[in-house]
Write a structure and sequence with these properties.
The longest helix is centred in the first third of the chain and has 38 residues. The strands form six sheets. This protein has a five-stranded antiparallel β-sheet. Strands 1-2-3-4 form a four-stranded antiparallel β-sheet. Helix 4 packs across helix 7 and helix 7 crosses helix 12. Helices cover 48% and strands 18% of the residues. Strand 1 and strand 2 form a beta hairpin.
């Protein structure tokens, strides 16, 4: 469901803007001055839509169009080829995404629920409000680079650029260029195709550049930040299982989870996944440590069938199970309630008694509920943090990064900001390249398809009206495919 406060803020804000605009335009004393003010600043207002247009960047576009004409010819021809391939690929991708969405809607099997390549993004629903700045800045940057490609390609083909602008639709920002349509209509279909494909081509290049920066970030930040020495804690959710005097704190470096070494965030995730899928780890302790006086009562079964033996509700004791050292040939297990930190501090892990040395010959295992795990988190020089619960809860409670500052004055969040922003640019710029390539009305794909048909079918289908009819039905099919993906994607995001 869409959060009601967010919906109220968005709707209230747009209503206030539209109401103010309407009152000023109806006012006999302020209407002329207000409309002149809007026109002088290139502003246009309509319900849930505001846009700003300027000619201030025309000289910049013209300068870019004059740089190395031969290289730009090869550059935009590469974009033409990419645009044609992307148009076909976008149809295939949207078809597969639609199939995945329909499969998820018609089955409750967890195996069918996978991560889709394309998803509808709604701020506050499947986009955390804490990351809205990343989203909007990356989306605006992707839109500006997209329109820059169109503008430079148009000027290279002698098509005038009337202006450049930025708009906001509901909450989504974007950019546009205004091309002189008369010039655009008299150039060849191949020239048109170079212009129309330039936007998605530049989105693809931006996506690749951000992806390269993401992979090379450790190299660029090497003088200031080190990697491979553990996972640095940047945030701990207050009140979570990782919070507390003996929990984790921002600045701690996690180097291990039980016997699984942690060299970075990827190791942290893989270790937690492995610990949740394998049986509970045991610990080697001397037989003399198992004193009957530590037991707080007889063992009993929980509702899920597992055993417990601590009846004092202590936060420092835990029930352990072990094979009776006096009867190792027996299949029965003994249970003892013991101080957990004293039992597991400095001990090696084990799966059975055979993994332990003679000095510490008994392997004791925490007796926990199904899917619950006991995990020792190593973060030197502090003592182990002891976690009891579901491993995914520990993963969601802590935010980590691979980058460890070499100097105390460096901020912990700088690499996180760069890494997160690059990921958003990769996702959004790539998504714009795919969506704008779809042969759909009002998108770049419409003009790309029309120009492609004019360039390739003119000798096969000589009648222009027939070519336009073929293009119309292809656009209708592409629009229906995109609309179905958006509609079902919105339903999946908001209704579930």
């Amino acid at each position: 469901m869409i959060p009601v406060p967010l919906l109220v803020v968005v709707m209230g804000g747009w209503c206030a803007v539209y109401l103010t605009d309407t009152l000023l335009k109806l006012s006999p004393t302020h209407r002329i001055r207000y409309e002149s003010w809007l026109a002088s600043r290139g502003l246009m207002l309509s319900p849930f839509h505001v846009r700003w247009q300027t000619t201030a960047f025309n000289r910049l576009f013209a300068y870019c169009a004059r740089i190395n004409p031969r290289a730009q010819y090869l550059w935009f021809n590469s974009g033409l080829v990419f645009g044609i391939v992307a148009m076909l690929g976008s149809v295939v991708l949207l078809t597969r995404t639609l199939q995945q969405t329909l499969a998820q809607m018609t089955t409750d099997s967890p195996g069918v629920r996978g991560q889709q390549a394309l998803q509808v993004v709604i701020p506050g629903v499947n986009l955390p409000t804490s990351q809205l700045a990343y989203f909007f800045i990356a989306l605006l940057l992707s839109g500006v680079i997209h329109e820059l490609g169109h503008a430079v390609a148009a000027l290279r083909e002698q098509v005038r650029v009337n202006g450049f602008g930025i708009f906001v639709f509901v909450v989504y920002p974007g950019a546009f260029v205004d091309l002189f349509t008369t010039h655009l209509s008299i150039i060849s279909p191949t020239q048109q195709l170079r212009i129309f494909c330039a936007g998605v081509w530049h989105n693809f290049v931006l996506c690749v550049a951000a992806l390269a920066l993401l992979f090379l970030l450790p190299l660029f930040l090497f003088p200031m930040y080190s990697t491979g020495g553990g996972a640095l804690v940047t945030e701990v959710i207050q009140g979570s299982a990782a919070d507390g005097p003996r929990g984790l704190s921002p600045g701690d470096i996690v180097t291990g989870l039980e016997d699984c070494p942690v060299g970075g965030v990827e190791d942290w995730s893989s270790c937690l996944s492995r610990l949740s899928q394998t049986p509970q780890t045991g610990y080697c302790v001397p037989g003399a440590s198992l004193q009957p006086s530590w037991a707080h009562g007889r063992a009993y079964k929980r509702l899920d069938g597992t055993m417990d033996c601590c009846s004092n509700n202590s936060l420092t004791d835990l029930c352990f199970s072990y094979m009776n050292p006096q009867g190792k040939n027996s299949r029965g297990r003994e249970y003892a309630c013991m101080p957990v930190r004293k039992m597991v501090s400095g001990t090696q892990v084990c799966r059975n008694d055979g993994d332990c040395t003679a000095a510490a010959g008994i392997c004791v295992t925490p007796a926990l509920e199904n899917r619950t795990r006991f995990i020792r988190v190593t973060h030197p020089p502090n003592t182990h943090m002891l976690f009891v619960g579901y491993p995914p809860h520990l993963q969601y409670a802590v935010s980590l990064t691979n980058f460890i500052p070499r100097f105390g004055f460096l901020h912990l969040d700088l690499p996180v900001f760069l890494e997160t922003f690059c990921k958003y640019v990769v996702s959004l710029s790539g998504a714009l390249a795919v969506v704008n390539s779809v042969p759909c009305f009002a998108l770049d794909g419409q003009w790309m398809l029309n120009a492609l048909l004019e360039a390739t079918l003119v000798t096969v289908v000589t009648d222009r009206q027939k070519r336009e009819l073929i293009g119309f039905f292809l656009l209708l099919a592409g629009s229906a495919l995109l609309a179905a993906n958006v509609a079902l994607g919105l339903w999946m995001v908001t209704a579930r």
